[in-house]
Design a protein that fits this description.
alpha/beta; Lyase, Ornithine Decarboxylase, Chain A, domain 1; 2 domains
Length: 378
C-alpha cells in the first residue's frame, strides 16, 4: 500500500489531479499561442502537494514553474522536474552555487542584489539566466523606476548575467476597481520601452496573475503567472461566471461521536454556543491544528448527507463540533465535507475564507502536513 493511502484517522484532503488538468486547459484556451505559462507552485502548490501537481502540469505541457524559495526549487529539481524553475523570492542566501547546480533562475528585485549576483558570476566565471522584478505599485519587492539607470549599468552587455525577462506584481487585480491595475500595466509598458531605448531588451515580460488572466488582461506580454486559479478558486466573486474552474482540493472527515443535549447546554470551550433546543451534536476529528480556522467557530458549516450543518461552538485544536439536529439520519462514521461537494451541496474554499475573514490562498496553504493528501486521477 502506498504511504499516501495509509490513514490513521478519517481526516484527509483529496487532491483531484483531473480538476487541475481541467483548470490548466481553461487557462491554455485563454492564453494566445506562443505565450508561456509560469505555474505558481510555491508553498507546496498552495498546500496541494508540489511534486504531484508539477508532474501533472508538465503532462499538460507547462514548462515554467514559480516557487518562493531556493529550497522549494531544489526540492522540485531533486524530484526529477525538468522544466524551468523560477525562484521568485530572490537570492535569500549567501551561497549562490545552488542556482547553477540545480538549474534554477533567480528573480532579482534590488539593484544591490543584481550587483551581488553579477559579481559572483564574474568571480566564478559562470553564467546564469535571471529575471528582474520592477516595482510598479505593489510596494513590496522590485526595483523602483528611479533606479533604472543603475540597473542598466549593471546588466547592459553583461555576458554572464543573462537577463531573460522583466516582471512586476499586481497589487489590486482581485478588486472590483481595475484602475489601480491599469496604472501598473501602463507603467510596466513604459519601463520596458525605456529599458529598450537604453539598450536593454529582453524576450519575456510578465505581469498577469490569475485575476488578470481571467479578466483577459494579457496586453501582449510573453508570459502569464496563474496561481490560485490553477487550484480552482476565484480571485474575486465577480469572476465566477467568467471561467469554469474546478476545485482541486476536497477536505473531509467523518463523525466520530454523536451526543444528544438538552436545551440550554453549552458546547465546546467557553460555552460560546448554547443549544436553543434539544440538539444532536456531532464531533469531527479536525481542528485548527489541521488548518480548519478557529475564526470559523459558530459561523461555518459542513456538509453531512448532502445537508449543511453548522459549526457549534469554538473550533478546537483537534476537533470541531457540528449541530446535526436537522440531519436526523446522521450517524457515527458519516462523511463530513468541509471543502468540496457532497450530493447537491458545495462549500468552496472562498466561502470558508469569508467565514474565517481571510482569503482562499491562506485556507489552502494552512491545511497542515498532518492532513494526508490522497491523490486522485494519477
Amino acid at each position: 500500500m502506498s504511504l499516501q493511502n495509509i490513514q490513521y484517522r478519517p481526516t484527509v484532503a483529496e487532491i483531484d489531479l483531473n480538476a487541475l488538468r481541467h483548470n490548466v486547459k481553461e487557462i491554455q484556451k485563454r492564453v494566445p499561442s506562443g505565450r508561456s505559462i509560469m505555474a505558481i507552485v510555491k508553498a507546496n502548490a498552495y498546500g496541494h502537494g508540489a511534486s504531484f501537481c508539477v508532474r501533472t502540469l508538465e503532462g499538460c505541457g507547462v514548462r515554467d514553474f514559480g516557487v518562493a524559495t531556493l529550497e522549494e526549487g531544489m526540492e522540485l529539481r531533486g524530484g526529477g522536474i525538468r522544466g524551468n524553475i523560477f525562484v521568485l523570492g530572490g537570492l535569500l542566501t549567501s551561497s549562490l552555487g545552488e542556482f547553477i547546480q540545480f538549474r534554477l533562475r533567480p528573480v532579482l528585485h534590488q539593484v544591490d542584489e543584481v550587483r551581488r549576483f553579477a559579481a559572483w558570476l564574474k568571480e566564478s566565471n559562470r553564467e546564469c539566466q535571471a529575471h528582474i522584478k520592477l516595482d510598479t505599485g505593489m510596494g513590496r519587492l522590485g526595483i523602483f523606476p528611479s533606479e533604472i539607470e543603475d540597473l542598466v549599468s549593471l546588466v547592459k552587455n553583461n555576458q554572464l548575467l543573462k537577463v531573460e525577462g522583466f516582471l512586476t506584481h499586481l497589487a489590486r487585480a482581485d478588486e472590483e476597481d481595475l484602475s489601480p491595475s491599469e496604472r501598473q500595466f501602463i507603467l510596466f509598458r513604459e519601463l520596458r520601452r525605456i529599458l529598450a531605448e537604453k539598450g536593454v531588451t529582453v524576450p519575456i515580460c510578465h505581469i498577469a496573475n490569475s485575476a488578470a488572466i481571467i479578466d483577459n488582461r494579457l496586453d501582449g506580454f510573453e508570459m502569464v503567472r496563474p496561481g490560485i486559479m490553477l487550484y480552482g478558486a476565484y480571485p474575486h466573486e465577480r469572476q465566477r461566471t467568467m471561467i469554469d474552474l474546478k476545485p482541486v482540493m476536497k477536505l473531509k472527515s467523518r463523525i466520530i461521536s454523536l451526543k444528544r443535549f438538552k436545551s440550554g447546554s453549552p458546547i465546546s470551550y467557553g460555552g460560546t454556543f448554547v443549544t436553543g433546543r434539544e440538539s444532536l451534536i456531532a464531533v469531527l476529528p479536525i481542528g485548527y491544528a489541521d488548518g480548519y480556522p478557529r475564526l470559523i467557530s459558530n459561523k461555518g458549516s459542513v456538509l453531512i448527507r448532502g445537508k449543511r450543518a453548522a459549526v457549534a461552538g469554538r473550533v478546537c485544536m483537534d476537533m470541531t463540533m457540528i449541530d446535526v439536529t436537522d440531519v436526523p439520519e446522521a450517524a457515527v462514521g458519516d462523511e463530513a465535507v468541509l471543502i468540496g461537494s457532497q450530493g447537491e451541496g458545495q462549500i468552496r474554499a472562498e466561502e470558508l475564507a469569508q467565514w474565517a475573514e481571510t482569503i482562499s490562498y491562506e485556507i489552502f496553504c494552512g491545511i497542515s502536513s498532518r492532513v494526508p493528501r490522497i491523490y486522485l486521477g494519477m
